[in-house]
Amino acid sequence: FGHVRGAFTSAVSNRTGRFEAAHTGTIFLDEINSTSLILQVKLLRVLQEREFERVGDTATITVDTRVIAASNRDLTHEVREERFREDLYWRLNVVPIQIPPLRDRCEDIPALVVHFLNYYSEANNRYVVRASPGALALMQAYHWPGNVRELQNYVERAVVMADGDELTEELLPDTVKYGDRDSSRSVLIHGVDVETLTREVVRLGIRQAEEERKELHSFVVNQVEKELISQVLTNCNHVQTKTAAKLGINRNTLHKKLKDYDLESHTTEE
Fold first, then answer.
1. Burial letters 146-167, b for 16+ CB under 10 A, else e
2. Is residue 91 within 8 Å of residue 47, measured between CB atoms?
3. pTM of whole model > 0.85?
4. pLDDT by residue (tens digit) across 30-61?
């Protein structure tokens, strides 16, 4: 239920309101949790009695409408906090559908990207018809705190900024390309296999090594090895013996690599 404040208020104040117009059809009310308690009472009556009066009119109008309501908050919690009427909650909660956040259904991202590319290409008279494998990999690795609306926004911007017919990783914002390094919810990997991510890491490593005129093999391999050791070291509470065992390498070898990668600080031998 969008702001039913927007949808439902007009439904009872317009000469032909939303509910009246949706007679024998379907009405979608987004973010039902954001409606006022006063409006919830009015909505409850329409759902319960299937009738209402227009503002300033005494005639009762009967409606037969399928109602679909959506909430971006847990309505049971809102009921406990007395921000949402319990009777309205139970009146709406007939066939509940739980939609997980986008980060938990990353397999849907390619289809959503294609849909938004087609939509915004037509709306802006552009021709951006596909996303590169690298861009898709980055989008499937991102945590999407803004869910589908955030994805929609980034695709629209990419369509407007694109020079060719492809959405490439360069068109994505830094938060998607590099993750939110200041958040514990930085890049979360869901539904992206290691082979795909490795291919992208190597591709980016080759480009950066060429730009910075660095020796290719050592640059890429050292970047991956340093990150691997750093993460395993953290998981092992910075204990070198445990880290070496988990990595499956000799303790002396680990000690040398810690020194090479400047990871020795705050580690213990045992």
1. eeeebbbebbbebbeebeeeeb
2. yes
3. no
4. 889 888 999 898 888 888 887 655 655 566 67
